[in-house]
Design brief:
This protein has eight helices and six strands; from the N terminus they run αββββααβαβαααα. It has helices spanning 11-14, 73-79, 93-110, 123-137, 152-160, 165-171, 184-205, 207-214; strands spanning 18-27, 37-47, 53-55, 59-62, 115-120, 144-151.
Length: 216
């Protein structure tokens, strides 16, 4: 991590040693212990030379239902996922965690951060499914904080008076394609753009105060 006296922008100092990573999961229900995890997308947040944050390219994969997983057909009708579709190119939960979490762990180290912190729209839902998959597969060294999150529902409610992702994104001036919504990649990318917009907007109000807070 950078020295506290270093005045240059550092994402490690901005969020008290946490690296924000936007995550969206698509599932076959609401219970992470019983229902299948079907898609994961993650967007690592980076910082430019002026201290503004921006999304990286998404990490993503389709996931095979774990053995004994239950399928709520109402959830599948909502997200329009067919878990048995032959062209899903889905991989096991263990392989999916390897594909998503290892690059996040590497980014945490590269940025001088201590842990990743999950950013999500209703973030506890996404974190719950990630933690359940980690427990089922015995995956080691989960980079995410075990309970702290940044939730864009709360942030968007504060800034825009909107809690639905589509409405919050539109209030922020972001494009929104309803036909692409409820796919993990699209929702993660839009949530990342929303999060960056809100954080950058806040920093623009009083940038010096932001960096003084970050050095505490």
């Amino acid at each position: 991590m950078r020295n506290e006296e270093d005045p240059s922008p550092s994402i490690a100092r901005r969020f008290r040693g946490f690296l924000p990573v936007v995550v969206d999961v698509e599932t076959a229900g609401f219970d992470p212990q019983r229902h299948a995890l079907l898609e994961i997308a993650a967007v690592i947040i980076r910082m430019d030379a002026e201290g503004r944050i921006e999304p990286s390219a998404p990490l993503a994969c389709h996931v095979l239902p774990f053995l004994g997983a239950e399928m709520d057909h109402r959830a599948l009708a909502f997200n329009k996922i067919d878990p048995q579709h032959p062209f899903r190119d889905a991989i096991s939960e263990r392989d999916a965690l390897e594909r998503i979490l290892v690059p996040i762990r590497q980014a945490v180290k590269a940025t001088g951060c201590n842990r990743a912190i999950l950013v999500g729209h209703n973030a506890a839902f996404d974190l719950g499914f990630i933690k359940a998959a980690v427990e089922r597969t015995g995956f080691k060294r989960n980079p995410f904080h075990s309970f702290s999150v940044f939730d864009t529902v709360s942030l968007a409610g504060l800034v825009f008076g909107q809690t639905v992702l589509a409405k919050a994104a539109q209030a922020a001036g972001l494009d929104w394609e309803h036909s692409q919504a409820h796919g993990a990649v699209y929702d993660a990318e839009q949530t990342a753009r929303l999060f960056c917009h809100i954080v950058n907007r806040w920093q623009a109000l009083d940038p010096e105060r932001v960096w003084k807070i970050g050095r505490r």
